[in-house]
Amino acid sequence: MDKETKVAYEIIRQRIVERLDTLGQAQVDRVKLPSGDINSLKKWRRFGAAFAWDPEVFQDVLAKPDMPDSQLISALRKAEDTLMRKWGVINKIPLHHVVANRTGGDLGIRTPVDTWLETRKRVFDATGAKPGDGISNLNAASQFDELAHQGRPGAKGTPFADTGIKQRSDFPVLHRAGQNLAEKAGKDTSLILGTAKEQANVLIPSVEQQQARFAETTATPEVQAQRQVLTRAGYPEAFAPDTPIERIQQIASEIKDTDIPKKFASAFDFSKSAVRLGKNFARNAPGLFGIIPEYGEAIDEITGGRVFGVTSEMKAAEFERKRQASIKAKERGGKLSMNFGSIKFTLPELGVSELITTQ
User: Where are the domains of the chain?
Assistant: First the structure.
């Protein structure tokens, strides 16, 4: 970030902090303010955090740091909303950031720019993650059925609304209990004034957990079955993290009036169109699918790169440990292959060998 951009960033950062403090105090004092984004503490926190994590996305804001507060919050919101709409190949499909913008709470927006830039670098160096609304954190791989996203049916008027499908009880929904966003860090004055190393040490475990969740849900049979619908239709790039947003918009236009969106939504059914378990397999080996996604970087190696949306950036200490376990299993004869028609596991260390076929 050059000197001029830093100056603009600091002006905006301090203005956002001032709004957070003013609205926070009004909330404590139970002062009722007019409705609207300008008086929404939640919105200022959300978009302020997104700005701190990846200010490069907000070029219009950086170009005019003195715009009125009403325009500022509008510009911050518009930048994210526009991206959230354009990254979907199917109307109103939910988008999920690999790492939530609210990671660290208000820590990023309250930390002076030089320290925060170093904190971001330390997080990236340790995890490969660059939170925010940029393409490394919000891209074509961020598209998920609402059943996978929040564990509920999709919005009315979308292909996801009336499928009648429910996710299996052990499905790893992205927004589920136990998520660590380290939001309390933004209330810790000593940490806000601390070193980049101290801040990164608090943030890294949260980032790694979120990366693991994203990879785990991405690699589920349901999500992979849905994405294969687009692959079979001739759009293998529809969920690839490096597909340009312009191409996603083109695909969305081409499939809008076809049966592809409906087929995509219907493919989430675990018992029917996604996968069919061999006799007694699900009952006798629960959680088997759960251990496979967590191999992280080994997934592409094992599956020949056919688990769409799992990127090399999704690395964590847990991934490496299980990657090594996967390699040892393979050395002993363990195999996993995933094709459009079948998924076959041979895991001698678990004593099971099952064939799972898709319709």
Answer: 3-218
